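User: Please predict structures.

Assistant: First:
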Amino acid sequence: METIEAIDAEELHLGVVRDEICMCCFAQAVAGLAVARELGGRSEVLVRYAHSGVVSGDTTSVVGYAGMVFS
């Protein structure tokens, strides 16, 4: 999350590959961050963060979701 909040596409890519992180929509997130930065994005607002355990009640293995706005 810190890398996304920093709008750092390159570090997100390197970190996911280096640390073997399983991340859905990885390429889309990297591309989105690159575009946000290219268009002058300098800050972000976390709209909401939740995980699948909130709905299922099972927190032994969860998938996280974040909604963010870049400006």
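Second:
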Amino acid sequence: MHALLGSLTHFFVHSLELLVSLPPDQLITSLWPFLFLSLPRNLLTQFLVLGVALTPESRRKAIFRQKLAVRRPLVSVLLPGYNERDTLEGTVLSLRDQSYPNLEIIVVSDGSDDGMDRIGHRLAGRGWIRFFNHKVRGGKVSAANFALQAAHGDYIAICDADTTFDRDAIWRLMEEFYRPEVMAVAGNVRVRNAKTNLLTRCQALQYILSIGLGRRVAAWLGILFIVSGAFGAFRRSALEAVGGWDTGPGEDADLTIKLRLAGGQVAFAPAAVCMTDAPDRWWAFFRQQMRWNRSTVRFRLRKYGFLLLPWRRPGGTLNFLAAVDVILFQVVFAVMFPIYLIGLFFTYPALFPYLVCGVSLLYLCTSVVTYFIALALSERPLDDLKLLPYLPLYGLFIGWYLRTVRLLAYLDEFFFRSSFTEPYVPAHVQRETRKFQPW
């Protein structure tokens, strides 16, 4: 073991020494994705996060919080679910324990066949929820839109039926509506089962850095393009004005873009924490990531590709910048990365393993800096600190595995439109959707 560690250390050190010794032109050729794309974006993100953390709270927000404590408008919490018998009661109990006192909880069982209806009727009999049981499955969007029509609140929160929440989560969401132009607020989703195995630990790091940190910056810049379907809140009037949710997968990002195009802004509430179980098996995780990333092509490129046209600028310059950020650093970078590696191999065949190792170490260094900034801002620093030993593996997880899965998903959706056969949405709904959605 000591010999192996010594060999690896020597290989890593030699890789870095090789990078440092390269002439400037070869260094640029070898590192251009890192130097011109990843590094500027990471540095910008890190400085902005520090700036956000040092920004004093708005006086308008403090005044709104005081008014909220007196007025307490009704918040309707929508829980559309399919076969959530084992988790529904825990989610409802977590919502009933919220410090925000004026909630109605609406549960819609979307054609479940696991006995979820029995749990729903029992909870409704206690007066804890309003429950609706759909015999035929119509998909999450169908259940969510039905729940929206049944809701009485001026504010709508939507959650997955297998999530739990910090006690002040709804309060924290509501506080972000202090600006009248804010139509939607994204909650902070974290991994509940991080201790299960290596896969869940890597996902926990991903959620901390991409959601807890990345969305904080995006919201501050005014380019946040996603309110997760796992936990978010909306002004009811805004939801109804854009027609609610459209058929997914990817319906959460689709709705967020519709709200932005209607002139609304999107906020992020880092202290509004929702806990969810991440996939703990590689095949389940692969399928989830394929579904999520297919929707990037389906909606962001096909349906809303016009946002990339700067001369049109629908909804303003910020929507253009937000679209460019997503497409450049997710789609374009994923497509370019294998091309970059192939070019690197044929340009420097003998040095290729060392160059790849050196580049990976550079990405790891930026991840370490980003991690410690996230740790400084975390509401669970002791839990997050336990993930530090897994940070090197996280670099491999994000840099290699996830980037490969994204590329497969993009190619699959681009050529085969597989999102229209995704079992996340029932087949009969997908068939009807495809008739009216050319994208």
